[in-house]
Specification:
- By secondary structure, this protein is mostly beta strands.
- Helices cover 0% and strands 66% of the residues.
- The protein has strands at residues 4-11, 19-25, 28-42, 49-57, 62-68, 73-78.
Length: 79
């Protein structure tokens, strides 16, 4: 399954799109209750940096999402 582009509302600190606050999935707003982990992955050839988050949603599911610094978009990789 390819990564799915999603809308994310974020807290923006000193760096843009710093931490997710809520996700909009299929017309439903899901609040982020807890950020369980976060990490950065960067490809060597294209030098594309992605900031990943594993979050617990208000619907009880765990989501793995990331922010692409190249495209400035959020994606869902796993629910």
């Amino acid at each position: 399954m390819p990564d799915e582009k999603i809308e994310v509302i974020t807290y923006s600190g000193y760096r843009e799109e710093e931490s997710p606050i809520s996700l909009d999935l299929y017309g439903e707003r899901i609040e982020v209750l807890e950020i369980l982990s976060r990490w950065i992955e960067e490809t060597l050839e294209e030098r594309i940096r992605k900031r990943f988050f594993r979050v617990k949603g208000s619907d009880g599911y765990i989501y793995k999402i990331y922010y692409s610094e190249k495209t400035k978009e959020w994606f869902l990789t796993k629910r």
